[in-house]
Write a structure and sequence with these properties.
This is Oxidoreductase FAD/NAD(P)-binding domain-containing protein. The chain contains seven helices and four strands, in the order αβααβααβααβ. It is of the alpha/beta class. The protein has a single domain (5-139), classed as Rossmann fold (3-Layer(aba) Sandwich), CATH 3.40.50. Strands 1-2 form a two-stranded parallel sheet. The protein has a two-stranded parallel sheet with strand order 3-4.
């Protein structure tokens, strides 16, 4: 799941529903102190063992960090979840650059961890979409 800014709202509901299952959320926003939506709820879910949370606060340091950077950093975990455990991958948020950037990062994960070509990685992503294991809800 990737939900920068207000894109995190649908994942909040999904995680509340699925708290008993293992979930991974990549959350990004500009500032941890101003924009960390539902922080206390995420922390409770982490403490309960129902959520692994990775954050990206783009304006809290000199070099901007976005959710797609965190996706690449967690390549081994994502490869295991998606390719071995058949996890689903959901993206929600602003439709400008984020969804394409996250998908590009996911293809890089497939190439790095799976040792596949760029074409094969793109085909893997397309297959996930076709089988509804990759879904996106974006707006502008």
């Amino acid at each position: 799941m990737v939900g920068p800014g207000t894109g995190v709202a649908p994942f909040r509901a999904a995680l509340q529903e699925r708290l008993c299952e293992a979930n991974v959320l990549f959350f990004g926003c500009r500032s941890e102190s101003k924009d960390f939506f539902f922080r206390s709820e995420w922390e409770l879910m982490v403490e309960a063992g129902g959520l692994t949370l990775f954050t990206a606060f783009s304006r809290d340091q000199e070099e901007k960090v976005y959710v797609q950077h965190r996706v690449r950093e967690k390549a081994a975990l994502l490869w295991d979840l998606i390719c071995r455990r058949k996890a689903c991958f959901y993206i929600a948020g602003n439709a400008k650059q984020m969804p394409a950037s996250v998908c590009d990062s996911l293809k890089e994960v497939f190439q790095q961890e799976g040792g596949v070509s760029a074409d094969a990685a793109a085909q893997m992503l397309a297959a996930m979409e076709k089988t509804s294991r990759l879904q996106s809800e974006t707006w502008s």
